[in-house]
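This entry is passed on directly below:
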Amino acid sequence: MFRSVSAQAVSGNAGQGQSGIKQKGRFGAYRKSQSVSYRAELHTSSSMGAMSIERFEPDLAWHALYTRHKHEKTVADILARKGFDVFLPLYTARHRWKDRVKTLALPLFPSYVFLRGGLDRQLQIMTTPGIFSVVASGGRVASIPESEIDAVRRAVDGSMRAEPHPFLKCGDWVRITAGPLESVEGILVRAKGVARLVISVEMLQKSVAVEVDASMVERVARPDPRKPGTAIERVYSEASCGFRLGQSGL
């Protein structure tokens, strides 16, 4: 049984020189209150030969990669060394065995790693061990709104307790008015006298809960997902990108 004790995000800013990766240990040594942003020089080769890829405009959107169970850290590490911008939020939990208790750093979104842009380098992505597919919707590579990634990043970068939470579709939609999460929106839930803000990644139908001060919230109207800027699909089709596309919530 797991008991969440705190949250953190894996991070490391690797150098771009050919001499290697400038990181403080693997994934930034799991330092608490860090953001995940991996950058590294590509040092891989492939026997599959060159591919002719249609040119796209620069892609700065966030996407979700569906990975093998318990391979999220390995995938993030390899992609970082290939020069990709990767986000892997973690939380810490205590795992009890009969003879000992161990604190583990676990993914907030099991089997998912977030990737910013990089879809023009499909071969380097899909040949990474542990990746099953790129999350898609309607046969197109899906994008994750920047606001959702930013909310998750701020939740794990702060001093608040954060942990996975069942996905919620309904509830009181609120905005944080002060503190580290100021302007972040989500669903407010209360349990045992503790207020928590539930932040969701809609495309994956997965959520994270973070403890908040109930006096620092205000009720607001829930955003309309049909409005510009909240769409969850990009213009990269399966045929043009050549990715293995996977539906969300696998």
